[in-house]
Write a structure and sequence with these properties.
α4 packs parallel to α5 (117-130) and α6 runs parallel beside α8. The protein starts with a helix and ends in a 10-residue tail after the last strand. The protein is an alpha/beta fold. Helix content is 43%, strand content 12%. A six-stranded parallel beta sheet has the order 2-3-4-5-6-7. Strands 8-1-9 form a three-stranded parallel beta sheet, with helices on one face. β3, α5 and β4 form a beta-alpha-beta unit. The chain has helices at residues 3-13, 18-27, 30-48, 87-99, 117-130, 145-154, 168-174, 180-193, 210-223, 249-262, 272-277, 281-287, 323-332, and strands at 51-54, 56-61, 104-109, 135-139, 158-160, 196-203, 227-232, 292-293, 336-338.
């Protein structure tokens, strides 16, 4: 097989076979990587020009009932600093974000039973009343079909639930007693209900192979999520995977570029995790096809408590309040910050 021919096929048809994707990942070199990133950027430009959508992230709770082996919020981590924001805190953060020009608010947290359907519906309705032209994204884990439907009917627009790995054995190796099928069921439910649903996966997990990454690529191609969060695995010092190596910028950027070619209209973040392992990681992600960034709106008093992995980026330009700095840095890199909801084109 010819590696550039595979990339060209991806660019022309937005698809490639399992065998072609594996060959690409196994054999990519500097020259073909440059070709891949160029094609991914051209695809991004076709639908989004040089624009970057910005989201205001509010990390609402560091409590979690799950015990995932890679995550600092896992329930077995006795060293974790736990907190949860009340409704007033969340609304205040959202309103502050709106004043700064953020037209999408993202509520993210561990799977915390405190946030019942009733509590979340209250929060959603107040945000949508206070900020009627803004989009609201939730990232609060696995729930029932009925629960998701209630949240959607209350006014939530998007829901991000990364599938983490599309290989059953790998998924189960990092999720204690969690169901691989249940996670996929949730994603199907979210799409059926009408959410702009987001999936996503980690790059560089312990024992992850290129075959596993091909499973992820084929899964997102078949699911066609509106959003896809892809970031490097980063170990946390208080988890069983603390001594494992982190994923790399290079591999993550390659997977971002391939995902952009497979899903040309997808909302694709340049993640905080990517910025955490490489000071230039965000710009590399944007050049490879990413088109979303999510600075932090959470109260300063809780930010370090939301510790998913080691050395999470707390640099000033990850802070929502430094919007002008973010805008200038993006402009220097050749991108334009857009003040809008930033919906997937298929939902406009």
């Amino acid at each position: 097989m010819d590696i550039k021919a595979i990339i060209q096929k991806l660019y022309d048809t937005n698809d490639a076979s399992r065998e072609e994707l594996l060959y690409l990942l196994d054999n990519i070199d500097d020259d073909s990587k440059k070709f891949l990133i160029d094609k991914a950027y051209k695809t991004r430009y076709k639908y989004f020009k040089n624009t970057v959508f910005i989201r205001g992230l509010i990390e609402i709770s560091s409590y979690c009932k799950k015990d995932c082996l890679y995550c600092g919020l896992r329930r077995s981590n006795k060293n974790a600093e736990r907190y949860r924001l009340d409704t007033e805190d969340i609304i205040e953060c959202a309103k502050r974000g709106d004043k700064l020009g953020y037209k999408t608010i993202v509520l993210q947290g561990g799977e915390d039973a405190f946030y019942t359907d009733e509590k979340m519906i209250e929060i959603i309705k107040v945000i949508k009343k206070e900020l009627p032209t803004s989009a609201l994204t939730l990232s609060i884990g696995e729930r029932s079909y009925d629960s998701y439907k209630k949240l959607y009917e209350a006014g939530a627009d998007r829901f991000l639930l990364r599938h983490e790995s599309a290989t059953k054995s790998l998924y189960e190796s990092i999720h204690n007693n969690e169901s691989f099928e249940e996670r996929r069921r949730c994603l199907r439910d979210l799409k059926e209900i009408g959410f702009q649903a987001g999936a996503g996966f980690m790059v560089g997990l312990p024992n992850q192979t290129n075959e596993d990454l091909v499973n992820d690529l084929r899964f997102v191609k078949e699911l066609e999520p509106a959003m896809c969060g892809i970031g490097p695995f980063i170990p946390h010092k208080y988890t069983p995977l603390r001594d494992c190596s982190a994923g790399t910028t290079e591999k993550t950027v390659i997977l971002l570029a391939i995902t952009r070619l497979l899903l040309p209209k997808v909302l694709l973040p340049a993640t905080t995790a990517l910025a955490s392992i490489d000071s230039n990681g965000r710009n590399e992600g944007l050049r490879a096809g990413a088109n979303v960034i999510m600075p932090n709106l959470s109260p300063m008093s809780v930010r370090k408590k939301y510790s998913l992995y080691n050395n999470k980026a707390f640099i000033l330009d990850e802070d929502a309040e430094y919007r002008n700095s973010i805008e200038e840095k993006l402009k220097e890199a050749g991108f334009e910050l857009v003040v809008s909801r930033g919906d997937n084109p298929d939902f406009v």
